[in-house]
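User: My collaborator sent over this chain with a note saying "see what the structure looks like." That's all I know about it. Can you take a look?
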Amino acid sequence: MPLDAQSKAVLDMMAAAGLPPIEQTTPAQARELRAALRATFSAFAGAAPEPARVDDWTISGIPVRVYRPNLVKPLPILVYFHGGGWVLGDIEGYDPVCRALAMASGCIVASVEYRLAPEHPYPAALEDCYNVTKYIAENAQEFDADAERLAVGGDSAGGNLAAAVTLLAQETGGPEIQFQLLIYPATDYSADTGSMQEFADGHFLTHAAMRWFWQQYAGGAENGLKYWISPLKATSLSGLPPAFVITAECDVLRDQGEAYAQRLEDAGVPVRLKRYDGAIHGFFNMGGMLDTGKEAISDAGAALWNTLGARAAAAGAGEVF
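Assistant: Without extra context I'll predict from the sequence alone. Here is the result:
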């Protein structure tokens, strides 16, 4: 299926902005450009719904913003790791999508502002994401959350971190994660797949940009072989929690996300994979302009509630603040 008309319009807007290719900038310059375009990116996301409560926390020195969709407690909780190639992104930029995800899922969403590369290369981001997840699991009552209904998720680099946190939690004996939401995740440093070639240029995330991002975070091919950087290289994925894997048809990361979903299925892990036809990388954050983005938020919300919320619904509404 060709690129859908709405996605093409977004790409045309980006092209008209005349931004330099990210691989031709320094990380500092790339962040300055992202900051200057924040209003534009917010417009892509659309109007953010208002959860019942939004609180800013600091956990082990890491900023975390917590979104509660209603005042019932305890609720399931999703620990969310933003995208941006491990170099870009923060909780402010992801505020609209996390608000929308909390309201769509009925779950608390805890958005993590992990340390960024290259100033803090691997394993800094993974350590931050794992430590915050572990703290929330061990102190769920502080968040009015249910530790037995804990999920991790993220998009792109954040999807990579969510998959890696799940593997790390399994290897270290906790925390017990019940669900993983993987949105066009980067899963293989060395991937040179068909989608990487077909959509190498002109579809928002380019092949060259992805190589640049990997280099900033992983530092080289030797680290790229580690399965905490490239989850697709893990020897076994058996025993991992159920997953919902979202991919975009016109995305360099499409094939490696779908390969990871297949590996999960082959290992006996319950997994749902959905490819959004005609969509580009980043569409999950563009619900203000893309119908596919709205659909994906709704689908992710339903997957979270169907997995984590059913037990609470069966037990009753719960306690109110």
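A starting point for your reply to your collaborator: The chain has a mean pLDDT of 93.
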